[in-house]
């Protein structure tokens, strides 16, 4: 027995080959506040992952400043264990996130680690794709015009400020005006789509309270929206480095689905907190401050993120990535530094106004300041036909309402226009978490804009709308609603059926 053991050891020793190799090693010269300065790694790349050997194991850092004598890096995660003198090794890899269909229904941090307590995300490591957090946006030849609608389920937006698949539409307004609620409604509304046209939704929470993220997660679960959604969470309690990386992680996950030929929607909530996290890191890295102490490349930070949203042409799979960034203003000041930057990058903005919100007009969309630069090309023919006059009529009403508050006697035509404006304002009111499919929106807007509801009392308008939609679902689902839903058009025969249905229901409602 002893002889066999000796022979085995001899064979092991004979077959042993010591492969010596050179490895560049750096050293931490300064550490604190999530930032490290490293000397000795002259060949490091920008955005390369570096491994710091600490007393408690390895810490990951990201190289961001490449200077002549040292590297400035940000520690990803908690960095209390990093001390001056710790050894640093290069990995030769840029920062990336694992992407795959298994992410759907999960909550992850910006490094792709699960936060929902449901265990490992990727079982088969062979099928996992690594997507870099920083990537060049698709070029002009890879894109095609945005012309497929992304329905939000919100009447005022789908009718007047349409969003297309592949568009970048900004949600802007003061705090507590319903920005996040509007974004979540858009996610909930994607449940209407069939599996073939399903939009994968990615909600990126940057610097939000944990309680708010938990509330959103609960709503998505209860509404069965998590089966096509992913949450990337970097709450206010997480380090500035993770808040800075969160939107890039969400975008990389969205690009995975876009490259698969699918449609993805990514919501960045919100980019002001993202800019603040980047400012904090930049100042700690001793980068020169500019306006409002933001670094000089703050515009480039958001432009390189939002430019990655695109509608790819058929040669590249035909997928799309739609971006809805959220910006919080202070006292309605849209001319501040970060809001003006993001407005100039995006393809339009939806402006939510505090005064409208407090008047009970919700969603509090200011139609005058809101715009979609894609316009009606991202609308179905049915919605385009019905809602073409809506913006004009509302604008005329707002103008008249401001003018006639000082006038005592009004002519009949002015009274009629004011009455119609009040009616349309009432019709466009909608509660949170109640998205309406576009075919039902078409039916109710057709009735309102063609004078069928002029004699219905304003106080009863909500009741009329709910009962009318219920009536259409039960009596005219196939000949009206399904026809509009399938064809996207309001054909002559369907229009005649809709008129008859409106009149029949109106008589019953009046009685």
What does this entry look like structurally?
The chain is an alpha/beta fold. Helices cover 39% and strands 19% of the residues. Strands 8, 10, 11, 12, 13, 14, 15, 16 and 17 form a 9-stranded mixed sheet that branches.
Primary descriptors:
alpha/beta; six-stranded antiparallel barrel; 511 residues; single chain; 39% helix; nine-stranded mixed β-sheet; 16 helices; 17 strands
What is the gist of this entry?
With 511 residues, the protein is α/β, with parallel strands linked by helices.
Number of strands: 17
Q: Low-confidence segments, ≥5 residues, pLDDT <50?
A: none
Shape: elongated
- How far is the first residue's CA from the last residue's CA? 103 Å
List the helices and strands and how they pair.
Layout: H1 2-15, E1 25-32, E2 35-39, E3 48-54, E4 57-66, E5 71-75, E6 87-94, E7 96-99, E8 107-108, E9 129-132, H2 155-160, E10 170-174, H3 179-189, E11 199-206, H4 210-222, E12 229-234, H5 240-259, E13 263-269, H6 271-284, H7 298-306, E14 310-311, E15 320-329, H8 337-345, E16 348-352, H9 354-358, E17 371-372, H10 381-387, H11 390-404, H12 412-428, H13 438-449, H14 461-475, H15 477-487, H16 492-510
Parallel strand pairs: 8-12, 10-15, 10-16, 11-12, 11-13, 13-15
Antiparallel strand pairs: 1-2, 1-6, 2-5, 3-4, 3-6, 4-5, 7-9, 14-15, 16-17
Helix pairs in contact: 5-6, 7-8, 10-13, 11-12, 12-13, 13-15, 14-15, 14-16, 15-16
């Amino acid at each position: 027995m002893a002889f066999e053991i000796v022979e085995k050891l001899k064979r092991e020793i004979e077959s042993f080959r010591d492969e010596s190799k050179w490895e560049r090693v750096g050293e931490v010269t300064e550490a604190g506040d999530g930032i490290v300065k490293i000397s000795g790694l002259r060949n490091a790349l920008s955005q390369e992952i570096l491994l710091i050997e600490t007393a408690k194991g390895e810490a990951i850092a990201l190289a961001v400043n490449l200077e002549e004598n040292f590297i400035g890096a940000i520690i990803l995660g908690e960095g209390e264990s990093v001390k001056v003198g710790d050894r640093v090794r290069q990995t030769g890899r840029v920062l990336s996130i694992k992407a795959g269909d298994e992410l759907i229904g999960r909550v992850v941090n910006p490094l792709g680690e699960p936060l929902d307590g449901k265990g490992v995300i990727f079982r088969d490591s062979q099928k996992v794709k690594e997507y870099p957090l920083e990537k060049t946006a698709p070029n002009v030849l890879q894109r095609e015009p945005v012309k497929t609608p992304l329905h939000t389920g919100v009447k005022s937006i789908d009718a007047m400020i349409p969003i297309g698949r592949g568009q970048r539409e900004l949600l802007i307004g003061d705090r507590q005006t319903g920005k996040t609620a509007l974004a979540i409604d858009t996610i909930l509304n994607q449940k209407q789509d069939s599996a073939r046209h399903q939009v994968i939704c990615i909600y990126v929470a940057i610097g939000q309270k944990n309680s708010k993220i938990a509330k959103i997660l609960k709503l998505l679960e209860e509404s069965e929206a998590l089966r096509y959604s992913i949450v990337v969470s970097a709450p206010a309690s997480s380090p500035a480095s993770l808040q800075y990386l969160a939107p890039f992680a969400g975008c990389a996950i969205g690009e995975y689905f876009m490259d698969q030929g699918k449609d993805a929607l990514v919501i960045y909530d919100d980019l002001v907190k993202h800019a603040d996290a980047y400012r904090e890191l930049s100042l700690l890295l001793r980068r020169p401050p500019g306006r409002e102490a933001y670094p000089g490349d703050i515009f480039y930070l958001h432009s390189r993120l939002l430019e990655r949203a695109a509608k790819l042409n058929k040669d590249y799979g035909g997928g799309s990535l739609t971006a809805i960034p959220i910006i919080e203003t202070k006292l309605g000041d849209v001319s501040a530094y970060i809001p003006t930057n993001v407005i100039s990058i995006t393809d339009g903005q939806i402006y939510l106004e505090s005064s409208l919100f407090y008047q009970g007009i919700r969603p509090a969309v200011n139609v005058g300041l809101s715009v979609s630069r894609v316009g009606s090309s991202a609308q179905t023919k049915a919605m385009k036909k019905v809602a073409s006059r809506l913006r004009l009529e509302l604008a005329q009403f707002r103008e008249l309402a401001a003018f006639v508050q000082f006038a005592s006697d009004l002519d009949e035509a002015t009274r009629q226009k004011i009455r119609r404006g009040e009616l349309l304002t009432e019709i466009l009111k909608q509660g949170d978490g109640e998205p309406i499919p576009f075919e039902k929106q078409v039916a109710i807007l057709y009735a309102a804009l063609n004078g069928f509801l002029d004699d219905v009392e304003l106080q009863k308008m909500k009741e009329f709308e709910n009962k009318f939609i219920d009536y259409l679902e039960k009596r005219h689902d196939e000949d009206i609603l399904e026809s509009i839903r399938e064809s996207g058009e309001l054909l002559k025969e369907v229009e005649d059926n809709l008129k008859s249905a409106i009149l029949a229901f109106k008589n019953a409602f009046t009685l």
